[in-house]
Design brief:
Coagulation Factor XIII, Chain A, domain 1, 16 strands, 2 domains, 5-stranded antiparallel β-sheet, HU Protein, Chain A, 261 residues, alpha+beta, 34% strand
Length: 261
């Protein structure tokens, strides 16, 4: 007799040495992502699951209509459950005095998203599989936007970025793609930092000129074949992501930390 229980969901990842703490046995877990799914991809998968009831284009059309309504409702001050999260608007920044008004120079509207009860239950039922320990990954510990002096939060295109890390020296053989990359959180498009923009390139310290990035949210990734004091290189480049999202302009959304999101 076939089981009616839903298939157990699981994620796989690697343990990476945590350079943000002093403990030598402290590791963080990096999920191994198998695909990047767009809304169009999800609609195609949903259409295949539903059979001939709806086409992918019909599902996407319905999604677009619901998304438009949800945007109108959120911007009208409603708390809207959409997808895996419950969403609402907030206002950040200080208001000095009882007659203070909204000041764009000091205040901004942000989007606050929290998992729904159903999503929290879904997360609690996921099994986590540790595949192996990833040794020697380059690790970015912190970055500071020189123009604003703000750490681990924002980017100023054309300005400087100063960072600290471990094994972050950019080095590699000809033909291998190494360097710093900004990955757009919305569409995963990468923008490379030109080698000519690197001003400091050391294992524990780096600095470069931020490329001309459009407004949005980005993740900084480092790719290198650096192996230490030796003149040799690793056989394959190793890549690692700084976990904090970095915003240009308003970032297209809120400024919550990964934990808040």
């Amino acid at each position: 007799m076939a089981s009616t229980d839903p298939k157990k969901k699981s994620i796989t990842g690697k343990l990476v040495e945590n350079k943000l703490t002093e403990r030598p046995d402290d590791y963080s877990f990096n999920v191994t992502y198998v695909q990047n799914r767009s809304i169009g991809d999800l609609c195609k998968l949903a259409a295949a699951r539903l059979g001939t009831k709806y086409s992918a284009s019909e599902i996407e059309s319905i999604y677009d209509a619901v998304k438009s309504v949800s945007e109108d409702e959120i911007c009208s001050g409603c708390i809207v459950e959409f997808g895996l999260t419950s969403n609402s608007l907030g206002v950040e920044g200080s208001f000095i005095g009882p007659k203070a008004q909204f000041d764009p120079a000091r205040n901004k509207v942000v989007l606050r998203s929290t998992p729904t009860a159903a999503t929290r239950a879904l997360l609690a039922d996921i099994s986590v599989i540790v595949s192996h320990v990833e040794e020697g990954l380059p690790t970015i510990v912190s970055v500071t936007d020189v123009a604003t002096g703000i750490e681990n939060s924002c980017l100023t295109p054309g300005g400087g970025l100063v960072g600290r890390g471990d094994r972050c020296k950019i080095a590699g053989e000809a033909g291998q793609t190494v360097g710093f990359f900004f990955v757009n959180a919305a569409d995963q498009v990468e923008t490379a930092v030109p080698a000519t923009s690197l001003m400091r390139n050391e294992p524990a310290n780096f600095s470069f000129v931020i490329p001309a990035l459009a407004n949005g949210t980005y993740f900084l990734e480092v790719v290198t074949q650096y192996v230490g004091g030796s003149a040799k290189f690793l056989k394959e480049p190793r890549r690692n992501r700084f976990p904090y999202p970095l915003t240009v302009g308003d970032g297209g959304g809120g400024s919550e930390s990964p934990d808040e999101i």
